[in-house]
Amino acid sequence: MFYLSVPPNVFIDVVKCASKSASSLNGWTRVIVEKPFGRDSESSAALTRNLKQYLEEDQIFRIDHYLGKELVENLSVLRFSNLVFEPLWSRQYIRNVQLIFSEDFGTEGRGGYFDNYGIIRDIMQNHLLQILALFAMETPVSLDAEDIRNEKVKVLRCMKPLLLDDVVIGQYKSHSKGGISYPAYIDDKTVPNDSLTPTFAAAAIFINNARWDGVPFLMKAGKALNTKGAQIRVQFRHVPGNLYKKSFGTDLDRATNELVIRVQPDEAIYLKINNKMPGLGMRLDRSNLNLHYAARYSKEIPDAYERLLLDAIEGERRLFIRSDELDAAWALFTPLLKELEENKIVPELYPFGSRGPVGAHYLAAKYNVRWGDLSAEH
Ligand SMILES: NC(=O)C1=CN([C@@H]2O[C@H](COP(=O)(O)OP(=O)(O)OC[C@H]3O[C@@H](n4cnc5c(N)ncnc54)[C@H](OP(=O)(O)O)[C@@H]3O)[C@@H](O)[C@H]2O)C=CC1
Ligand SMILES: O=C1O[C@H](COP(=O)(O)O)[C@@H](O)[C@H](O)[C@H]1O
């Protein structure tokens, strides 16, 4: 097994040499490829074409380490093995879904790699989109790798390519707090000082199928923000004819159920519900039904790469990206990326350590959504 932890410009040479001089004669030869799998549809297709000169598709293991994270693996279990969730998993009950990634540090010396890609290619087109595909796909025929990947491809193909109007980009600027000064993205020595590369992006994605028609899937990813984490938030619709409407005042959104899958840190799955506060009066409260992993399990959660490497050794392809999945993913983002770059769209600056550009709030508001991670009681 070869793990290509090398710069992408040497992928093909390494694969060529490995397949000609070091492939197994009587066992198997597999190659794990790290992202970036190209920069857009064309370069990704060229990379696949070149790899396939030397390898069959089933020898190529394209890694997306988010698929190896415990709570991303658990997504299908949650959906397909609990009667209470699957019937609610559609436009009928779900108002919006949010996929949120944040880091509280900047590019810190990795700007050379990052500046050529930006946050949309670094996080959204792969990690967040993969989670979205698993979240939104139809029930697969079985847990077999091909059955699951078939469903992921189908749902990716139902998504509408992203529109510039549904995207906000940002870039962090320097900021001083408590006597400490935090650098701007362009202060990174490996980044050109006129770089327009986004370090933050928010986007609204729609899925053109019977299950999800009209439901906004909002993605948000950023570096140098106020927190580090990754989460999936599912905001359910209002209760029709709610008998307790008066108790919620004018803000009915606060009263809707929300399912939160906290991928990291401090893994948890919790459901926000309304309940009566104990006492003689009738006052309502919001509480969490909480599966908190650290409290429930004493066993350490394996690192995503541990799981994925073990799967590759065992020939299990379920958590690796098939070439048609990759094509479908690039088809969604390539027109947007081209438009951003050709028109030199200027990112909105946000201070290092902040909650990101205000544009992200306007984007959410356009679809009557509030980011769940920014609410007072998230
Ligand atoms: N670092 C990151 O944050 C991220 C990395 N990745 C991907 O992960 C992989 C590894 O990243 P990273 O460790 O940062 O990469 P580096 O650029 O630091 O290179 C990793 C290795 O590649 C070897 N290498 C470089 N050039 C050649 C060459 N011409 N021929 C043979 N070997 C070469 C280097 O060997 P030597 O030390 O001998 O020079 C080094 O061991 C890459 O595919 C990258 O795209 C993806 C996302 C983020
Ligand atoms: O692939 C990448 O992921 C890391 C974040 O991974 P995590 O497991 O620490 O959440 C990100 O920092 C990097 O920019 C990106 O290339």
Automatic annotation (TrEMBL):
Residues 77-371 form the Glucose-6-phosphate dehydrogenase C-terminal domain. Residues 1-74 form the Glucose-6-phosphate dehydrogenase NAD-binding domain. Keywords: Carbohydrate metabolism, Glucose metabolism, NADP, Oxidoreductase. SUPFAM superfamilies: Glyceraldehyde-3-phosphate dehydrogenase-like, C-terminal domain (SSF55347), NAD(P)-binding Rossmann-fold domains (SSF51735). It catalyses: D-glucose 6-phosphate + NADP(+) = 6-phospho-D-glucono-1,5-lactone + NADPH + H(+). It is an enzyme of class 1 (oxidoreductase). The keyword GTP-binding does not apply. Pathway: Carbohydrate degradation; pentose phosphate pathway; D-ribulose 5-phosphate from D-glucose 6-phosphate (oxidative stage): step 1/3. The keyword Flavoprotein does not apply. Belongs to the glucose-6-phosphate dehydrogenase family. HAMAP family: G6PD. Catalyzes the rate-limiting step of the oxidative pentose-phosphate pathway, which represents a route for the dissimilation of carbohydrates besides glycolysis. This is Glucose-6-phosphate 1-dehydrogenase. It comes from Platanthera guangdongensis. The lineage of its organism: Eukaryota, Viridiplantae, Streptophyta, Embryophyta, Tracheophyta.
